[in-house]
Amino acid sequence: MITDVDGVLTDGGIYFDANGECFKRFHDLGVTLCEFGVKDNSAACQSLMEQAWVSAVQTACIGDDSIALPAFSACGLSFAIADAPEYVKRQAMGVLAQPGGHGAFRELADAILEAQGMADVYCSAKGCKRVATGVAQ
After folding, report:
1. For labeling, which of 4, 37, 82, 116 is most exposed (least CB within 10 Å)?
2. In this structure, are strands 94-95 and 15-16 parallel, antiparallel, or unpaired?
3. Which H or E run includes 60?
4. What does the H/E/C string look like for 86-133?
5. Would you list the DSSP string of 31-42?
């Protein structure tokens, strides 16, 4: 799964601490492949797919703005978050029920697991234990 950070993993808000430092609210997902400062989202998707040894057919992407449209065309599946503009939603294969920073990524991840017959990893203690070996919170 390929995702934008701002607006998808975050709610797009910027927060400042007492010292004026800027930060965003989102959880560490253990991301191992990433591209920073991307100007060409299609090329970035191609690079990430090569690094992960997957094809476009095996890849879904999530976006929230027009900058995601090249990624939509590079990936086999494309999804817009609930609070994306209508012109982005129209270009996506699906629209998620959750807005950015409020579970959109999780919604799609759970849907993928369910489609693969693996919903037990998020809805049962036995399934969770099977995949969570070595995970700490």
Report:
1. 37
2. unpaired
3. strand 60-63
4. HHHHCCCCEECCCCCCCCHHHHHHHHHHHHCCCCHHHHCHHHHHHHCC
5. ------S-S-HH
89 occurs within a structural domain = yes
CA pair distance 91, 35, nearest whole angstrom:
23
* SS3 label, residue 5: helix
Say how many domains are in the chain.
1
Which helix (DSSP H) or strand (DSSP E) does residue 10 occupy?
none
Assign residue 17 the CATH number of its domain: 3.40.50.1000
Position 137 in a domain: no
Which residue range forms the structural domain that includes residue 127?
2-131
Distance CA 96, CA 99 (A): 8
Q: Hey, which residues does 80 pair with through a beta bridge?
A: 63, 95
The whole-model pTM stands at 0.80
